[in-house]
Amino acid sequence: MNQLIISAATEGEKGTNPLVPNIWEMGVVLVGFAVLLYIVVKFVVPMFEKTFAERAEAIEGGIAKAEAAQAEASAALEEYKQQLTDARAEANRIREEARAEGAQILADLKAKAAAESARITEQAHAAIESERQAAVVSLRSEVGTLATTLAGRIVGEALTDDERAARVVDRFLADLETQSAGAAK
To answer: Using CA atoms, how far apart are residues 69 and 22, in angstroms rounded to an integer?
Structure first.
């Protein structure tokens, strides 16, 4: 074994070391790397930068649009709330006006009903008074005739004199009214 190691060591001195790269190979790889790096820096990176900038711009534009839409929505919400408040106030005002108008109409109808009732009552009283007067006149003439006939029978002579008969009837009716007034007390 010793010999193998020695022979490998002597051959290694004569030949190339596998751990040390060839300079020409290194140069070709470096040139290829440089070309590849140039292509990436010149063409690929700008495309990535452009795409990144577009996306950043789109996101910022979207954020700005979203903020504008949010502000617009907030303004619309405030306007809606204001309109709703105004509509409620208007509805309350209309409701109160309707109540007041209803109360006024009710008061007017009550006043008209009271006036109509008073008018009907007054007409009824007038009609009753008229009928009472007619009844009194009718009764006077009938009572007068009956009283004259009765007085003629009692006295025994006919009372044909109209003036005398009228006096007898009036006296008889006065006595009746006095008696009914005394009974009412």
So the answer is: 66
Q: Where are the domains of the chain?
A: 22-184
pLDDT tens digits along 15-62? 678 888 889 999 999 999 999 999 999 999 999 999 999 999 999 988
Name, in order, each residue with C-beta under 8 angstroms of 169's C-beta and a sequence gap of 6 or more.
Answer: 140, 143, 144, 147, 148
Q: Which residues contact 147 (CB under 8 A, 6 or more apart)?
A: 168, 169, 172
> Do residues 148 and 162 lie in contact, with contact meaning Cβ atoms separated by under 8 Å?
no
Q: Which two tokens stand for residue 158?
A: 């006919």
For 108-160, the pLDDT digits (tens) are: 999 999 999 999 999 999 999 888 888 877 877 777 777 777 766 776 556 56
CA distance 129 to 180: 19
Does residue 22 sit in helix, strand or coil? coil
In this structure, what is the dihedral angle of CA atoms 98, 103, 109, 115, given to the nearest 10 degrees? -150
